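sorry to bug you again but im stuck and you know this stuff better than me. below you get a single protein, a line of residues and a line of whole numbers that encode the local backbone shape. mainly i need to know what kind of three dimensional shape the backbone takes. anything you notice is useful, everything is just below:

***
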Amino acid sequence: MERPANLSLPFFAYGVFRQGQLAYFQLRDLVQAAEDPVTARGRLLVRDGLPIINQHEDGEVVGSLLHFKADFVSEAYERIARLEPEKQYFWRETTINALRANILHGRSPNKGSVPFEGKMWNGWDDSLFTAALEVVQETIEANGEFKWDLKPLFRPQMAYLLLWSAIERYLSLRYHLGTRATDKVNNLATEQAFAVALRERVSTTREVARADRPQDKEVLDPRAPEASVRYYYQIRSNLVHRGKGIPRDYEMLLNSASELLQIFRYVLVQATQEAKS
């Protein structure tokens, strides 16, 4: 999306860019001062899992008022614009603590949205980061023995796809909310926490062929984060495009699901601690 008209104003962040939230790390080095908590007038809603504000209705929304360093104001708003989707938001000026500020207002806020229970959205509480990961863990533990009815194969497949839904949700909120899935997945390999957990949880190399191009393969290597992300994602892609063939190695699927779950949980913990520091 475009940057706001008046770049000299501070930014009221009530979503992923709020201090302590998933994408605040993208702005931290450009912030001169952050006031938190502060409130803005309006009603807090959620649409497509994202918080939006409707300032045409009564209520209060809690967030951070971010004042950017004078020489980096343009860069700060450029980073915000690169992540936030124009279909969800438009720029508007509002008043926070008697100061004019830029805010991302919900576009057609009452269409396709639901009221948020509370005044403060917290992305770390997303059910895909909590309940969903518990379901994945329980499914893996309950299907640790192969049977010829194939139920212990299909259930981990479902769990693996749910795990990737959680990972893609994390990457969307942290890096960008666009539709380029491959770009989002590649960001996971850049996180130091992923590399650390990969080395701790994986001790051998494995290969998986593409379902649509069996001559091509991806390699899991504890020393190669980028290649390993592609390996784990290829298994997910093979499951989705099962009409072209699915991974038939039960042990590989179960190992991959267990490894990636532990790795992602470590990534979440480290990201949360980084955001709070």
Observations:
- Residues 243-247 have pLDDT under 50 and may be disordered.
- The CA atoms of residues 203 and 222 lie 7 Å apart.
- The helical segments are 73-83, 131-142, 151-174, 181-189, 192-201, 225-240, 250-276.
- Strands lie at 11-13, 31-41, 43-47, 50-54, 60-68, 89-96, 99-106, 114-115, 206-209, 217-220.
